[in-house]
C2H2-type domain-containing protein (Poecilia reticulata), 445 residues
Amino acid sequence: MKLKTPHLETETSTSMENPAYGEAFQDGPEQQQMMETKKEPDPVEIKQEQEELCGNQDKEQPNVFEFCGNSFMQHNHMIPQADEKPFSCLTCGRGFNKQYNLTVHMRTHTGEKPYPCELCDKSFRRSNDLARHIRTHTGETPYSCQFCGKSFNDNSHLTIHLRTHTGEKPYSCEVCGKSLTDSSHLIKHMRTHTPEKPFPCLTCGKGFTAQSDLTVHMRTHTGEKPFTCLVCGKGFIQKTTLSYHMRTHTGEKPFPCDLCDKSFIQSSDLARHLRTHTGEKPYSCDLCDKSFRQSSDLARHIRTHTGEKPFSCQTCGKAYRDRSNLVRHMRTHTGEKPYSCRVCGKSYSGSSQLAYHITTHTGEKPFSCLTCGKAFNKQSTLTVHMRTHTGEKPYSCDMCEKSFRENNDLTCHMRTHTGEKPYSYKMQSCHELCDEFFTVKCTLT
């Protein structure tokens, strides 16, 4: 079938002038003859051929075009309209320039996911989404970064990653001007300016600005930890948390401090550390005049006002204000001590305990008082020491007017009201048995 409409002949002639098409048409004498013959087409023939292209839409027989050899169910293949969106969604009115895009879009309304994964129970709306998902099973990462060699299972992830090298942030917030590397990050950021949290948790009611955040949150209810360390078998809720954990095995610390010789596993750890140099405490308590370097420290502090202890031990019922304290407490039941000293081999249940222990080998005292210069090997010791300068006594007795610098001082003081003496000391001396009891353990020495 030869297409003889003037419009199509004009487009074909333009295509012939393109060098990319030249070689293909030089070898075809029929095409050359057709180009040389430029008689005016008969209107009757034009109408007849249009009816052949468009007239019988019910028959699903593709039109094969001589120029490119491709077959299409619609005749408008040769007349692309870039701005036109003739395919509209009857549900929401959104327009599309291709029937396929409309078909895929309709599945967001119907919930149809015709592409199931044979390796798990997940299904997808598009075949390329399924192909990308399959790589999570196979581990295939065919898209590699030319700068650092990091590989990805999707080309779009590589594109976003490359911006960490180039510094490009093409998506800007119209409210505050902040720029971001990814359009999804911009959408999520925009919700920080509005109270919108369109993804609620059906279990606890907490709302989230992104579906991915809700997915991660749901794992705190289900206990699912789909990302497992191949070295020690530890499971994690998020893939990024696993990548950070892997650095504890490799020793990699890619984020160095420019002001000292310390390096860190995460960029957030470096940002937090830099505040120890600058003294910045950007997180302020609305209930008192305290400020903190980390938002998590502020959240933990707020609970000292509210008395909230949301983290409970399932074994003994003891509750804690902070999840990390609960994790450390659970090890008193399991006996787990995952943090070992490389110098002497001694193990500890908490990383902070190990860090403190290591200073006994190195003699390092990294926490210095800015007032008197005295140095300490623990941040908590420095915090207590600073109260000798400020006069702060944050631990108050509910039964009298006394206040104390440390919580354990208040605990000991409370026993003077209750009469409790939990520390006993039995000594066999001169055939006499001492059964004295004390309120403070140090009294025994």
Q: What stands out?
A: The first strand starts at residue 63 and ends at 64. The two ends are 107 Å apart (CA to CA). Residues 1-80, 427-432 have pLDDT under 50 and may be disordered.
